[in-house]
């Protein structure tokens, strides 16, 4: 692709630079508008500067990716309502045999849940639970927070629905869910094991010197955490129904003359009801008690809840089976989401409000901005210079390509990196299996690259912020602590994937 005219090249570069600054530093002092507004701002500049036309901007938005992202978010919301993540949290503490066993469990649960429900969702839901368990067992929090974040990133690499960049790669490359899983899964398994071993090696002495609480106190604390976390983790806590119910109870608790009169009338009616019940019983009639009716009502609601939760799990399983069979990923996820909405059989607004629409808007703006930057010709020119040294048919070329992806993913973020390099990396490879390998290597390296620094992925930032804001047991995971482990882990795990992905 030839370079664009100088004016378009300069203006397009300025628009992309503004988008990059606002995406990487959302609270930059001169324009603290955040990532979502920053992506729209970059897209708007691409159109205003006439780098692309409005029709080209609309065409740049990849609707299949947005549909797949929306569908998986809705399914995750209903899974959370069905207590799936509560059960995952319970699995962490069930018959735990000490801090090292707990660390390995965090790695395993984080990896599996991230592959199925996206890494960001896993980190949102499990961070505070992991932090509370560590505090209750008098353990240092940062090894477990690092285990959660790094394992979430590695685990999410195994499936197209594990993270946003994999969604982009799966849709653009047209690699089926099963082929994607089969290609990356071995590297993911070995990567998780190596990551866990490195965590144990680095923090073995720290975990061995802890002072454990009494076993019965810990088990009681774990139960309390489970029940509390069921309501504390939500994608978008716009409403807090437990507060309104608390206020209504508080209001009902106040006594005034009118209330007392009503209670007196009510007690009179109760006395009459009891007299009527006694008369009925004396005449041999059957009169069900209030207690029995309440028990029956409770059991009915309980079984309805069990049936609903089972149906949610079955629909999710059906979605995963359909994806493995090679059905269209976007419409499979949307169909599963609408099936769950219909199954709920009530207004879906409270659940749909928890969808991260800001993320969907961010993707729209990013698609337009990156497409405009591609039309300047700069990415193509840079790739032409690098392509002779990044041939995936050779070990040296694969290493050079991986290094470029690692750097770009931490400088420009992983999703823009995939959008900029994806088609070029695939085009430089031979057709067939080599092209598929190029896409899978891009997915692996761009995902694992998120473990390099604290700013490398959204999952890392979510863990950091969730831990810092935790009530009564907050903890700050510093950039230095993350880099101390993230750097060697990223390099070693990335190298493993380059060898195992075929």
From TrEMBL:
<dbReference type="GO" id="GO:0016020">
    <property type="term" value="C:membrane"/>
</dbReference>
<feature type="transmembrane region" description="Helical">
    <location>
        <begin position="184"/>
        <end position="204"/>
    </location>
</feature>
<feature type="domain" description="Citrate transporter-like">
    <location>
        <begin position="21"/>
        <end position="449"/>
    </location>
</feature>
<dbReference type="GO" id="GO:0055085">
    <property type="term" value="P:transmembrane transport"/>
</dbReference>
<feature type="transmembrane region" description="Helical">
    <location>
        <begin position="399"/>
        <end position="427"/>
    </location>
</feature>
<dbReference type="InterPro" id="IPR004680">
    <property type="entry name" value="Cit_transptr-like_dom"/>
</dbReference>
<feature type="transmembrane region" description="Helical">
    <location>
        <begin position="355"/>
        <end position="373"/>
    </location>
</feature>
<dbReference type="GO" id="GO:0005886">
    <property type="term" value="C:plasma membrane"/>
</dbReference>
<keyword id="KW-1003">Cell membrane</keyword>
<feature type="region of interest" description="Disordered">
    <location>
        <begin position="246"/>
        <end position="286"/>
    </location>
</feature>
<feature type="compositionally biased region" description="Basic and acidic residues">
    <location>
        <begin position="247"/>
        <end position="261"/>
    </location>
</feature>
<feature type="transmembrane region" description="Helical">
    <location>
        <begin position="6"/>
        <end position="25"/>
    </location>
</feature>
<feature type="transmembrane region" description="Helical">
    <location>
        <begin position="32"/>
        <end position="52"/>
    </location>
</feature>
<keyword id="KW-1133">Transmembrane helix</keyword>
<feature type="transmembrane region" description="Helical">
    <location>
        <begin position="439"/>
        <end position="463"/>
    </location>
</feature>
<keyword id="KW-0472">Membrane</keyword>
<protein>
    <recommendedName>
        <fullName>Citrate transporter-like domain-containing protein</fullName>
    </recommendedName>
</protein>
<keyword id="KW-0812">Transmembrane</keyword>
<keyword id="KW-0813">Transport</keyword>
<dbReference type="Pfam" id="PF03600">
    <property type="entry name" value="CitMHS"/>
</dbReference>
<feature type="transmembrane region" description="Helical">
    <location>
        <begin position="312"/>
        <end position="343"/>
    </location>
</feature>
<feature type="transmembrane region" description="Helical">
    <location>
        <begin position="58"/>
        <end position="79"/>
    </location>
</feature>
<feature type="transmembrane region" description="Helical">
    <location>
        <begin position="483"/>
        <end position="501"/>
    </location>
</feature>
